[in-house]
Amino acid sequence: MSRNNIKIFSGALVCEGSKLRGDITVGSGTIIHPSATVIAEAGPIVIGENCLIEEQAKIIHRVPFDQQNKENIPILMIGVHNVFEVDCTVEASKIGNNNVFEPKCFVGSRVTVTNGCTIGAGCHITEEQILNENISICGAKCQMREGLDKPAPQNLQMETLLKMLPNYHYIKKPNMKQQV
Protein backbone atom coordinates (compact mmCIF):
# COMPACT_ATOMS: atom_id res chain seq x y z
CA MET A 1 0.00 0.00 0.00
CA SER A 2 1.36 3.40 -0.96
CA ARG A 3 1.96 6.13 1.60
CA ASN A 4 -0.10 9.26 1.63
CA ASN A 5 1.66 12.22 0.07
CA ILE A 6 -0.91 15.00 0.08
CA LYS A 7 0.18 18.38 -1.30
CA ILE A 8 -2.28 21.23 -0.76
CA PHE A 9 -1.51 24.59 -2.37
CA SER A 10 -2.41 27.76 -0.49
CA GLY A 11 -5.84 29.02 -1.45
CA ALA A 12 -7.25 25.48 -1.57
CA LEU A 13 -9.87 24.45 0.97
CA VAL A 14 -9.71 20.76 1.93
CA CYS A 15 -12.01 19.61 4.74
CA GLU A 16 -10.55 17.25 7.35
CA GLY A 17 -13.48 14.88 6.84
CA SER A 18 -12.48 14.15 3.24
CA LYS A 19 -10.80 10.84 2.46
CA LEU A 20 -7.53 11.39 0.57
CA ARG A 21 -5.28 8.39 -0.06
CA GLY A 22 -2.08 8.16 -2.09
CA ASP A 23 -0.02 10.80 -3.91
CA ILE A 24 -2.42 13.73 -4.42
CA THR A 25 -1.78 17.37 -5.33
CA VAL A 26 -4.60 19.87 -4.78
CA GLY A 27 -4.40 23.13 -6.75
CA SER A 28 -5.09 26.60 -5.41
CA GLY A 29 -8.76 27.56 -5.18
CA THR A 30 -9.94 23.95 -5.22
CA ILE A 31 -12.57 22.97 -2.64
CA ILE A 32 -12.91 19.41 -1.33
CA HIS A 33 -15.98 18.80 0.83
CA PRO A 34 -16.05 16.51 3.86
CA SER A 35 -17.04 12.96 2.84
CA ALA A 36 -15.49 13.40 -0.63
CA THR A 37 -13.03 10.65 -1.58
CA VAL A 38 -9.89 10.94 -3.72
CA ILE A 39 -7.83 7.74 -4.09
CA ALA A 40 -4.56 7.62 -6.02
CA GLU A 41 -4.32 3.83 -6.27
CA ALA A 42 -2.46 3.42 -9.59
CA GLY A 43 -0.34 6.55 -9.42
CA PRO A 44 -0.43 10.24 -8.58
CA ILE A 45 -3.46 12.49 -9.02
CA VAL A 46 -2.95 16.20 -9.77
CA ILE A 47 -6.09 18.30 -9.29
CA GLY A 48 -5.92 21.68 -11.03
CA GLU A 49 -7.01 25.05 -9.72
CA ASN A 50 -10.58 26.04 -8.83
CA CYS A 51 -12.15 22.58 -8.93
CA LEU A 52 -15.12 21.70 -6.74
CA ILE A 53 -15.40 18.20 -5.29
CA GLU A 54 -18.71 17.86 -3.45
CA GLU A 55 -20.04 15.53 -0.73
CA GLN A 56 -19.77 11.79 -1.46
CA ALA A 57 -18.00 12.45 -4.81
CA LYS A 58 -15.33 9.86 -5.59
CA ILE A 59 -12.28 10.33 -7.81
CA ILE A 60 -10.30 7.11 -8.14
CA HIS A 61 -7.16 6.56 -10.19
CA ARG A 62 -6.97 2.82 -10.63
CA VAL A 63 -5.30 0.51 -13.11
CA PRO A 64 -7.75 -0.63 -15.81
CA PHE A 65 -8.33 -4.39 -15.57
CA ASP A 66 -6.66 -5.07 -18.96
CA GLN A 67 -3.50 -3.19 -17.87
CA GLN A 68 -2.99 -4.95 -14.53
CA ASN A 69 0.48 -6.25 -15.48
CA LYS A 70 1.69 -3.14 -17.31
CA GLU A 71 3.87 -0.52 -15.72
CA ASN A 72 4.00 3.22 -16.35
CA ILE A 73 0.37 4.04 -15.68
CA PRO A 74 0.38 7.84 -16.18
CA ILE A 75 -0.47 10.50 -13.65
CA LEU A 76 -4.18 11.35 -13.55
CA MET A 77 -4.24 15.01 -14.54
CA ILE A 78 -7.41 16.91 -13.70
CA GLY A 79 -7.61 20.35 -15.30
CA VAL A 80 -9.07 23.57 -13.91
CA HIS A 81 -12.68 24.58 -13.13
CA ASN A 82 -14.08 21.04 -12.95
CA VAL A 83 -17.15 20.27 -10.83
CA PHE A 84 -17.68 16.83 -9.29
CA GLU A 85 -21.22 16.87 -7.93
CA VAL A 86 -22.73 14.85 -5.07
CA ASP A 87 -22.19 11.07 -5.24
CA CYS A 88 -20.54 10.94 -8.68
CA THR A 89 -17.78 8.38 -9.28
CA VAL A 90 -15.04 9.33 -11.73
CA GLU A 91 -12.21 6.98 -12.72
CA ALA A 92 -11.39 8.67 -16.06
CA SER A 93 -7.85 8.33 -17.42
CA LYS A 94 -7.58 12.11 -18.03
CA ILE A 95 -9.82 15.09 -17.33
CA GLY A 96 -9.46 18.42 -19.11
CA ASN A 97 -10.93 21.80 -18.07
CA ASN A 98 -14.45 23.13 -17.37
CA ASN A 99 -16.24 19.78 -17.03
CA VAL A 100 -19.26 18.93 -14.88
CA PHE A 101 -19.89 15.46 -13.46
CA GLU A 102 -23.48 15.48 -12.23
CA PRO A 103 -24.88 13.49 -9.26
CA LYS A 104 -24.67 9.70 -9.39
CA CYS A 105 -22.88 9.59 -12.75
CA PHE A 106 -20.10 7.06 -13.33
CA VAL A 107 -17.13 7.56 -15.66
CA GLY A 108 -14.92 4.49 -16.14
CA SER A 109 -11.13 4.28 -16.30
CA ARG A 110 -11.04 3.84 -20.10
CA VAL A 111 -12.67 7.23 -20.73
CA THR A 112 -10.79 10.46 -21.50
CA VAL A 113 -12.78 13.62 -20.81
CA THR A 114 -11.55 16.64 -22.80
CA ASN A 115 -12.91 20.16 -22.12
CA GLY A 116 -16.36 21.58 -21.48
CA CYS A 117 -18.16 18.24 -21.13
CA THR A 118 -21.17 17.52 -18.95
CA ILE A 119 -21.87 13.97 -17.79
CA GLY A 120 -25.53 13.99 -16.77
CA ALA A 121 -27.06 12.73 -13.56
CA GLY A 122 -27.11 8.93 -13.37
CA CYS A 123 -25.27 8.41 -16.69
CA HIS A 124 -22.73 5.57 -16.80
CA ILE A 125 -19.92 5.86 -19.36
CA THR A 126 -17.61 2.83 -19.39
CA GLU A 127 -16.63 2.09 -23.00
CA GLU A 128 -13.15 3.15 -24.07
CA GLN A 129 -13.47 6.55 -25.71
CA ILE A 130 -12.27 10.15 -25.87
CA LEU A 131 -15.14 12.57 -25.37
CA ASN A 132 -15.01 15.48 -27.82
CA GLU A 133 -15.07 19.01 -26.43
CA ASN A 134 -18.40 20.46 -25.27
CA ILE A 135 -20.22 17.10 -25.26
CA SER A 136 -23.24 16.67 -23.01
CA ILE A 137 -24.32 13.17 -22.06
CA CYS A 138 -27.79 12.89 -20.62
CA GLY A 139 -30.92 10.81 -20.29
CA ALA A 140 -31.65 7.19 -19.46
CA LYS A 141 -29.81 6.03 -22.61
CA CYS A 142 -26.81 8.37 -22.08
CA GLN A 143 -27.35 10.20 -25.35
CA MET A 144 -24.49 12.43 -26.53
CA ARG A 145 -25.12 15.91 -27.82
CA GLU A 146 -22.72 18.63 -28.82
CA GLY A 147 -23.12 21.76 -26.72
CA LEU A 148 -22.71 25.28 -28.01
CA ASP A 149 -20.84 26.51 -24.94
CA LYS A 150 -18.82 24.94 -22.17
CA PRO A 151 -20.37 24.85 -18.69
CA ALA A 152 -20.12 28.12 -16.75
CA PRO A 153 -17.71 28.19 -13.78
CA GLN A 154 -19.35 27.86 -10.36
CA ASN A 155 -17.80 31.11 -9.04
CA LEU A 156 -20.67 32.21 -6.80
CA GLN A 157 -21.04 28.75 -5.23
CA MET A 158 -17.27 28.55 -4.70
CA GLU A 159 -17.18 31.98 -2.99
CA THR A 160 -20.00 30.95 -0.67
CA LEU A 161 -18.33 27.64 0.22
CA LEU A 162 -15.00 29.35 0.93
CA LYS A 163 -16.78 31.46 3.55
CA MET A 164 -19.10 28.79 5.00
CA LEU A 165 -17.13 25.53 5.16
CA PRO A 166 -14.48 26.81 7.63
CA ASN A 167 -17.29 27.77 10.03
CA TYR A 168 -18.58 24.19 10.25
CA HIS A 169 -15.62 21.92 9.43
CA TYR A 170 -11.96 21.56 10.29
CA ILE A 171 -9.77 22.47 7.33
CA LYS A 172 -6.46 20.83 6.37
CA LYS A 173 -3.58 23.31 6.35
CA PRO A 174 -1.95 24.07 2.99
CA ASN A 175 1.60 22.76 2.77
CA MET A 176 2.61 24.26 -0.59
CA LYS A 177 3.02 27.89 -1.63
CA GLN A 178 0.71 29.62 -4.08
CA GLN A 179 1.17 28.46 -7.67
CA VAL A 180 2.60 31.08 -9.99
From TrEMBL:
Chain coiled-coil ranges: none
Pfam families in the cross-refs: Hexapep
Major place of residence: cytoplasm
Keywords: Cytoplasm, Cytoskeleton
Keyword Cell membrane tagged: no
Gene Ontology CC terms: cytoskeleton
Compartments reported by the entry: Cytoplasm, Cytoskeleton
Gene3D superfamilies tied to this protein: Hexapeptide repeat proteins (2.160.10.10)
Domain of life: Eukaryota
Matching InterPro entries: DCTN6, Hexapep, Trimer_LpxA-like_sf
Entry's family note: Belongs to the dynactin subunits 5/6 family. Dynactin subunit 6 subfamily.
Function: Part of the dynactin complex that activates the molecular motor dynein for ultra-processive transport along microtubules.
Protein name: Dynactin subunit 6
Taxon lineage: Eukaryota, Metazoa, Ecdysozoa, Arthropoda, Hexapoda
